[in-house]
């Protein structure tokens, strides 16, 4: 981030809920409500022992090609830019943001 002049922080809202549970694990996460209903998580819930590590690994893997200008920390992505190749810092930053959003699509 040293030398950068423009910064953006992106928070991945409800990021855990974007990771699908493995089909064989769905019954293992089922809970029964007091009314007798059965609730099965189809996506990774928060609160599981390994949920944060799994989510962080997924985000790091997806953003690996962009890590030079978009490092991540759990559900936060920090995009930083400076002028380069004759482009202004704003133009470079917009290009970086587009790349991040395309990856997260």
UniProtKB/TrEMBL annotation:
Residues 1-105 form the Reverse transcriptase domain. It comes from the Eukaryota. Signal peptide: none annotated. InterPro entries: DNA/RNA_pol_sf (IPR043502), Rev_trsase/Diguanyl_cyclase (IPR043128), RNA-dir_DNA_polymerase (IPR053134), RT_dom (IPR000477). PANTHER family: REVERSE TRANSCRIPTASE DOMAIN-CONTAINING PROTEIN, TRANSPOSON TY3-I GAG-POL POLYPROTEIN. This is Reverse transcriptase domain-containing protein.
């Amino acid at each position: 981030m040293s030398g950068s002049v423009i910064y953006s922080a992106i928070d991945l809202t409800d990021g855990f809920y974007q990771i699908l549970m493995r089909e064989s694990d769905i019954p293992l996460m089922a809970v029964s409500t007091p009314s007798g209903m059965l609730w099965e998580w189809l996506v990774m819930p928060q609160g599981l022992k390994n949920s944060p590590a799994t989510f962080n690994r997924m985000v790091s893997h997806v953003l690996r090609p962009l890590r030079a200008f978009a490092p991540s920390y759990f559900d936060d992505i920090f995009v930083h830019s400076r002028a380069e190749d004759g482009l202004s810092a704003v133009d470079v930053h917009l290009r970086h943001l587009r790349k991040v959003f395309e990856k997260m699509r």
